[in-house]
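User: Could you check the structure of this?
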Amino acid sequence: NSKILTGITNTIDSAVAKTVSTVKDIGRRVVNSVKTGITNVYNGAKNLAVSGIRKANSYISAGYNKVKDYIIEKADRVYKTVFNKDRKNIFGDLSEAANYGVKPYSILQKELKETTLEAHHIIEKRMAMALGIKKTRSMLSVAVTAAEHQVFTNKWRSILPYGSIYRDLSSNEIWEYAQDVYQGYPALLDVAKISIFK
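Assistant: Sure, the predicted structure tokens are below.
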């Protein structure tokens, strides 16, 4: 009887040991599978995010180039429009404006960097909000000397003093002011009209 009991006990112990070993092995496999799954999910999410960022950058770059091309095309169209008109002195008494033409402020400013000339916003940037213009550096401008620039600044200031509520101005009001400021400057008046009623 003692031998039989011992045999049964040994069999039970062996079975328990095998069961524990099996459970531990299954546990290790489950843990490893979970770790692998988490790693795969992380890597997949990371790759997806990187891909998304690259696509977003591509779209942003394409959009920027389209906007830039549009602004340059618009400036070129304006420039050709005013120069194709059969009349003299369309830039009035401005000494250098005809040599540079009408261009977006950012572009003209770069061209004038090595000169003493300045880029003049034909429609002052303080009126940009009233016209729905978000980027003032894209506003059309002409090349002027410091003295010429001051003349236009003084004219605008006398008509529309600094500190006024610019955002409440209507397009018609700004156009009326522009006609006073640019009397004798047909090209600038043409550009002002296109900029205001774009």
